[in-house]
What we know:
The longest helix has 20 residues, at 19-38. The protein is built from two helices and 16 strands. Helix 1 (2-17) crosses helix 2. It has one domain: Beta Barrel (Porin). The relative contact order is 0.18. The protein is mainly β. The chain is globular and about 55 Å long.
Amino acid sequence: MFKILIPILAFIVATTANADVTSQALNKVSEKISSTIGNLIPGEGLTEASVEIRENEKPDFNILAVRDIDLKEGSNFFSQFSLHNSEILNDERITGNIGFGYRTLNDSKTLMYGVNAFHDRDFTNGHERGSFGIELRGEVLDFNLNKYFKMSNQKLIDGTKEQVLGGTEYNLTSQVPYTPWAKFNFQGYNHDNELMNDQKGKIFSLEMAVNPSFQINLSEDQSSNAGVEDVRTAELTFIYPPRDNKPTMQDGLSSGEMFTSGNVEGKLKEKVRRNNNLVVEIQGAVIFTKK
Length: 291
């Protein structure tokens, strides 16, 4: 993981230490990339393209879009879809996700409530999964819960039996104190293994907004099952349109306020936090398509 972290951290330091030169160049590059990505998918809304990097593995690529269907004062009915590649047992796979959600605000716009439903499909081998989710987001703390359920039967892939799994996950997300450009996310998950014990674990993530168009996420997946190694990931994400109304690293490394406050109206248009990767049981061994 250090091979990934060292250049990323060096890049962050260089960006903040040379704000007049490095930051301007980075802004131009990231804005150009994000605007190109935004033009790939028509319609108004959030578009993200990301690269996930792990040690000794090929990078995975992902494109995600959120589009408003019926945006009103204090509520939003929206769609979200994504497409990404992954590798499992040296087999390259393409997975797609599509979902719909509804969100609404309280009268003071300090809380947002939401529900959503998704369908996930492995286009390469035909695995399918569905999910239902709920969201509760505030000024400082966000919570969401996703329940996944399998929608396809066991399949024989190149002589190996595979079964997509269901499960449950929850996320707690908050700003890092005195650091408005960084968020910390804790995820707890449980995958319903049919042949062995359920796989449980937790994921710790740090999400850093470098500038309005570019974000770096670092995470560690810690499984509670014996014999399953921890997985560390670095993700580089380009965002369109730029988030000009949100703090970034270029605004300063620290703030005098412990937490930023304000209404949560902007969260009506954000993406749903969920695992877009399918979880597959292969002859009794549980592995993630993203690993």
